[in-house]
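FW: tagging you since you asked about this chain on Friday. Here's the raw sequence from the shared folder, copied in full. Didn't touch anything.
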Amino acid sequence: MNLLPNQKKTRELTEQQQQFLSILFENGGNVTAAALDAGYSRGSIGWLKNTLAEEIVERTKSLLATNALRAATRLVNTIDNPLPERGDELRFRAAESLLNRVGLAKQETINHNVQAVHGVVLLPPKNDDDGVVIDG
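HL: got it, structure written out here
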């Protein structure tokens, strides 16, 4: 039994795969354009998405985490601003959503209160003398 925490092994990406990921995050997530710009053919786009899915998710988490401070600052500035500005409500909801996704906003707790009723059935002792046979 291994008690050490699991350490992810980072796999080596090719230069073309790294280029694809960079272009993907620069162009706002257009997978097709990023794949073509990185030199992949149209037929390999599905394979590329599946192959690099973990790296895309990790980079997305990092992107959200780095923007969490901006979201928190936006929330504070919106609250402190005495004069509401156009679009504040939308920015407020976007910042709140981002903070929810990185786990820094409201926490939900669920209370599971379960009562289990266990019944015990007592049967009379089995007597072989009765000669009663129940055929099932």
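FW: The mean pLDDT is 80.
HL: agreed, and Residues 53-80 form the longest helix (28 residues).
FW: great, closing this out.
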